[in-house]
Amino acid sequence: MDAATQMPSHPNSVWAATANPRSNLPCLEDDIETEVAIIGGGYSGLSTAHHLSKAGVDCVVIEANDVGWGASGRNGGMAVLRYKKGFSELATLYGDETTHGLYRLVMEAVDTLEGIVREYSIDCGFSRYGHITAANGRKSVESLEADIAWLARRAGDHGARMLDAREMRQMVGTSVYPGGYLDPRAGGVHPLNYARGLGAALHGKGIPIYVSSPVESMERDHGGMVLSTRRGRVYAKKVVVTTNAYTDLMPLGTNLARRIVPVSTSVLATAPLPSELASSILPQGQLVTDNRHLVNYFRMLPGNRLLYGGRGDITGKESPDIYRGLHSMLVSTFPALKDTAIEFHWSGKVAVTLDDFPHFGKLGEKIFYSVGYGGRGVALTNLLGKLLARLVCGEAVDAGPMNKGRFNPIFMHRLRIPGMQMVAGYYGLLDKMERQA
User: Are residues 15 and 73 in contact, defined by beta-carbon separation less than 8 angstroms?
Assistant: First the structure.
């Protein structure tokens, strides 16, 4: 059966509208055997397959929908050289030695992404555009300055620098930010083209990728694992779960879904802007994420469109109010866009964790996982796919809090939605207070 005829459509995103054609990947219709079965055809699963293949390990990828259907094809396409918490705060929490290790890993993450793009000549618009972390207020400026100081003092890294309010106006095109943190080494991609390009490259080198094949059960059998789909089964020695924020949609028999909280994020993309107006917004092409508790992010796209993203509906539903609120934030940032048409809007899910780190590891001896990127997955998924492949191969891996820290089921997980509503309200108040300070 042609998988394309039964595959759920991608959301109404600017990425889907401008994407390269999808590959004609099959759905699973027979029983197969493999050494490692990877559940999830997003960046994490594809990166894991890439690195397992390079290690000579036989593997297959099983995807419920399409390659890049989830967060991998819906995100802002920003490969950022920072974690959710800044380096100075991480040093306070974990110490300088652990934080220096985390610093090296995040640098390696973007290098890994770039290496994969180059190895397979993936047409995804990858470039080191540079990334600006925009300060929400004076306190935020001070925290970013502390990060710059930590990088210079402890890592000998002078690549990032602070921007004052004047430079922010020149480089971003708005006066709402009192300062910012620029790292010119950060990268950007067309996220859906990257997922499709990597999937096609892996399929072309003989790694089976099955789409439209949701896993309906996962069971142990004779020292291995059996994954059952509608029309076929996979017999594997080991299983890797990389379903991230969509883990709760699959009956895998693990408690991974209770270790993360799926959070909705929503995105707008404008109609093409007049050349003069477009040239006044991010004229040097950097990507921007602010450091509010309820984060907003934006970038200019080819064709003079502005992409602007932020928090979605807490319940995960498509809500017109969310898009109106997001548009209000866009206009408050760029008042000249008040009457600009919005041509695309879409939502998706990211998975957050209690410590703001992604986590990878193993459940017993047969099941491995990587989840919880919290909106920082464009770079980190590629890194963790590499590290997870090493773990599957039996190597010892130390990624600090990402695989050595606690990652237990979240207490009272079933009450996460009212809890998130309370936290979102509190964070919104903090953001407002800091901006006014």
Answer: yes
